[in-house]
Every structure is written in structure tokens, then in C-alpha cells.
Amino acid sequence: MDPDPLLSRATGYTTLAAGTEAVAELEIKRSRFLAVLRRAGTEAEARALVEELRRSSHDARHHCSAFVLGPDRDVQRSSDDGEPAGTAGLPMLEALVLRRTGTAAGGADVTDLSDVSAVVVRWFGGTLLGAGGLVRAYSDAVSQALDGAQLVRPRRQRLYRLPASHADAGRIENELRATGLTVLGTSYGAAGAELGLALPDDDAALAAAHSRVAALTAGTGVLHPDGVDWVDSPAAPPA
């Protein structure tokens, strides 16, 4: 069973941008390796990529796969799909799990890539590569695909609704955005407008947001809780 991401211990992680695909192709001793990576939030979504490539590349000998799921990376799976044990799926999984996505305070590497499904399709070229050659090929194929991937950083956010008058909604939205708050949009109805906000799941940040709203609305604006969700933000490149 896939873990509930809203019960995660993590408040953020790195993944592929929704709707994007990362691809790389290698040729080693006439064997062709095609790596395809996509975002996946569940095991079903991760395995769907494997089945899709089996159908579209049915002439290939191997469709090896690996995926890591959940903000805490609780789910990790890999498959060698007929290659010698440990020479394909595990190196692919390690390329995902050990991928450096940033630098933490103190200089330590951040390795928090998740919700990614990777498949490497191999067309055998007639020459055996040996265990070491296979490990390098499958690992390099995933790593090179990640080099060109568009990454984002989902952060756990508390959602709020902020009622406002039609006359004030545009000004409040612009000023909230200018302070760095995430405004999901503004809806307009007969009785007035309502702004949707996503605020960091952090007590200090929430207190600061309440203070900003109070200042912008002369104390009349009230934030109404509207649940918790993960919201994508741009991922800074590793330093």
C-alpha cells in the first residue's frame, strides 16, 4: 500500500515536474539503452510506465525498472527483468536514491529525490558487457536522464481561504505575492471575492502570514483553514 503523503515526516522533497519526461539514450558495444523517467505518485502509476514501454518497445530484450515513492521515500522497488541479478534494477534505484539535489546547512548533500519511476529499455547488441559493464550502463542511463530533467520541490502546505471585497481582492493578491506568499488564485462571486493561499507548514511562517494579512486588511481579513496539500515550487539547482 502506498503511504499517505499528508502523514509524511518530511515537509518537502524533490521530484520531476508534472507532465514532463526525462530521457537519455546510450550505445555501448552495439547494445542500446533507452532511459525514460516520469513522475509517479503511486505504485500503479510507476508500473504503468513499465507496461507502456513494454508495448512500445516490444522488440527489446529487457525492460528494467526502479522507482521510489513518497515524501519519506518509504516505497523503493527495482527489477532486473532478466539481466543478471543486481546488475540493472538496483543500480538504477541507487542512481535515483543517491541523486544529489541540493546542499543542506553545514554543507551536507541533500538526496531527497522521490515520486519517480525509471525504466531502462535494452536492445542487446550481441556482445556481453559483463556484470560491471551492465551496472555502469544502467546507472549511467538513469543519471544522464536526470541531468536533463525538469525538477520541482513539492512542499507540504496548509491551505487557507481569505474572503475580500471585489474592490480590495486584486490589491491584496498582488501585495501578498510581493511578500513571497503563494496565492493559488482568486474566485469572484456575487457576495465578494475569495483568495486561496498555500502557506508553509511551519508555525513561525504561519504566524508571519497572519500578521501580513492583518496589516494588508487593516485587521479585517481572516484566514480560514482549508486543509493540507503538497504544492510544487521550483527546485534550486544543486550548489
TrEMBL record:
InterPro entries hit by this protein: Impact, Impact_N, Impact_N_sf, Ribosomal_Su5_D2-typ_SF, UPF0029_Impact_C
Residue stretches making up the Impact N-terminal domain: 29-146
Superkingdom classification of source: Bacteria
Domain UPF0029: 165-205
Gene3D superfamilies cross-referenced by the UniProt entry: Impact, N-terminal domain
UniProt similarity note: Belongs to the IMPACT family.
Protein name: IMPACT family protein
Organism: Kocuria oceani
Lineage start: Bacteria, Bacillati, Actinomycetota, Actinomycetes, Micrococcales
